[in-house]
Structure formats: C-alpha cells, structure tokens
Amino acid sequence: MAVMSIDPIESADSIEPDRLSCPGVRQALLALGWVCVALGIAGIFLPVVPTTVFLLIAAWAFSRSSHRFHRWLYEHPRLGGPIRNWHAHRVIPLRAKLLAVSMMTASVTVLAVFVNAHWALPVGVGALLAAIAAYIVSRPSAVPAAQ
After folding, report:
1. Do 78 and 32 belong to one domain?
2. Are residues 35 and 106 in the same domain?
3. What is the pLDDT of residues 40-67, one digit of tens each?
4. Which of 19, 36, 41, 86 lies in disulfide reach of 57, CB 3.0 to 4.6 Å?
5. How would you class 5 by CB atoms within 10 Å of its CB: exposed for 0-12, middle for 13-18, buried for 19 or more?
6. Are residues 55 and 39 in the same domain?
7. Of 94, 110, 92, 103, which is closest to residue 48 (Cα–Cα)?
8. pTM for the full model?
9. Closest of 121, 99, 97 to residue 110, by C-alpha
10. 94-122 pLDDT, tens per residue?
11. How would DSSP label each residue in 69-106?
C-alpha cells in the first residue's frame, strides 16, 4: 500500500481556516472539534466509546477551523498517535476494528429484533453496515515495519 506523501499539518495550513467565508461555520467546526476531543478522551476510559474515530473527526474539524488546535491535536503525545498513523498508513487499531464491527452488528440486531419495521429496513441497514465493516476490516491494524 502506498504511503501518503502529503504532510497533514502543511495541507491543513493551506486551507486558511481564519478566512472561512462564514464565521459561524468556523465556530461550529471548533465546537465540533472540541466535542469530539472530549468524546475521544472518554473513549480511552469507556470501552464502548470509540477513541480513534472521534479524534479523526476532531482533527478534520480543527484542520478547517484552527491551525493551532489542529497542530496541538496532531502532535499530542497521547492523542496524536492514532491520527498520525491514520494519515501516514491508513491504520485502524485492532481494538477499534473489533469495537466498530461488534457495535454495527449489535445495531442491526437491535433494529431487526426490536424495531417494528418492514423487512427492507434492517436488510438495507445491514448491507450498508456490512460494506462499512468490510472497509474497516480491510485496513491494516498496525504500522508496517520499517524496511
């Protein structure tokens, strides 16, 4: 698999978040970023809350709203590792994969058993989540060894 050659910090800096056309959008993205950071930190301690997904969303939101917060998150010694691994190698940790696939399975099961809907709804949702699960499972679980 090819390694991305784009530095996410430099590419985010080229967006010029301070020049977003609508200041409300910048504020909304900042708020989204901080909510996702909080959820990501909660995920470190709570086994059913995914950490990596929320940190990736926060990195995206910060990349479009604040150079300072994006750089802080990307370079953070504890929180930045999964983000850097995703940007450089498209790595999804095994724990995150297992949690994501098990939560998707549980969601479809609850939908099929407890929601009084036409059979097409759980089948459609199941098909969509199966495609997403296949993508998640197909990503590497660890950073490739240096050659």
Report:
1. yes
2. no
3. 999 889 877 888 889 999 999 999 999 9
4. 36
5. exposed
6. yes
7. 103
8. 0.71
9. 121
10. 988 998 899 999 999 999 998 877 889 99
11. HHHHHHH-TTTHHHHHHHHHH----HHHHHHHHHHHHH
The 8-class DSSP code of residue 18 comes to G
Distance CA 80, CA 72 (A): 8
Amino acid identity of residue 53, one-letter, is V
The answer to whether residues 64 and 124 belong to one domain is no
What total number of domains does the chain contain? 2
Q: How far apart are CA 34 and CA 54, in angstroms?
A: 10
Contact (Cβ atoms closer than 8 angstroms) between residue 66 and residue 30: yes
Domain hosting 51: range is: 8-89
- The b/e string for 18-35 (b: 16+ C-beta within 10 A; e otherwise) is eeeeeeeebeebbebbee
